[in-house]
UniProtKB/TrEMBL annotation:
Residues 5-163 form the NadR/Ttd14 AAA domain. It comes from Pseudorhizobium tarimense. SUPFAM superfamilies: P-loop containing nucleoside triphosphate hydrolases. Coiled coil: none annotated. It comes from the Bacteria. Transmembrane segments: none annotated. This is ATPase.
């Protein structure tokens, strides 16, 4: 699944904005499972929330991510994922203190990480943790991905248009506009 590309990194670092610009330029994108799960759980009074039951949240994110991967196989060209399966697996590792034995599919070996960017970080109903927790999460991901033999590529703190240009150039994709 070399055409499946993960955008991960620090919460509030601009991942969703980057994915929206990629989508606007005509690329297939997959929304972050975590945000979808949090919205659903809040609407239904559920407990699979990262601040209530991180394990239940991570298992639910794995379930949603696997469905996303299955659906994405029907799409043509590169597909950009806002977090997803591997981030959920990293959360399980945090909960249980050991690596999950799940058989994980491979993605493009380049994983783009948004670094901590306090100037754009904001909390909302779905992101309740503070910047300190976001940086701790980022630090875990920064070591987690290489442990699975992925190359982490730090995204520059530039405009969203420049970030997309960077990703396209890094992957050798021809620029496109929708």
């Amino acid at each position: 699944m070399d055409r499946f590309i993960i955008i991960s990194g620090c919460s509030g670092g601009g991942k969703s904005t980057l994915l929206e610009e990629l989508r606007r330029r005509g690329y297939a994108t997959v929304e972050e499972p975590g945000r979808r799960i949090v919205a659903e759980e809040l609407a239904n009074g559920g407990r699979a929330l990262p601040w209530v039951d991180l394990a239940a949240f991570a298992w639910r994110a794995i379930e949603v991510s696997l469905a996303d991967i299955h659906a994405a196989k029907q799409l043509d060209g590169p597909v950009f994922f806002d977090r997803g399966l591997l981030d959920a697996t990293a959360a399980l590792e945090q909960v249980y203190g050991e690596r999950s034995k799940l058989g994980l599919p491979r993605f493009n070996r380049n994983v783009f990480l948004t670094p901590p960017w306090p100037e754009i970080y904001v909390n909302d109903s779905e992101r309740r943790h503070d910047m300190k927790a976001a940086v701790e999460e980022y630090d875990r991901l920064l070591s987690f991905y290489p442990s699975l033999d992925y190359e982490t590529v730090l995204l520059p703190k530039v405009s969203v248009e420049e970030r997309v240009d960077f990703v396209q150039s890094y992957l050798g994709l021809k620029p496109r506009q929708s």
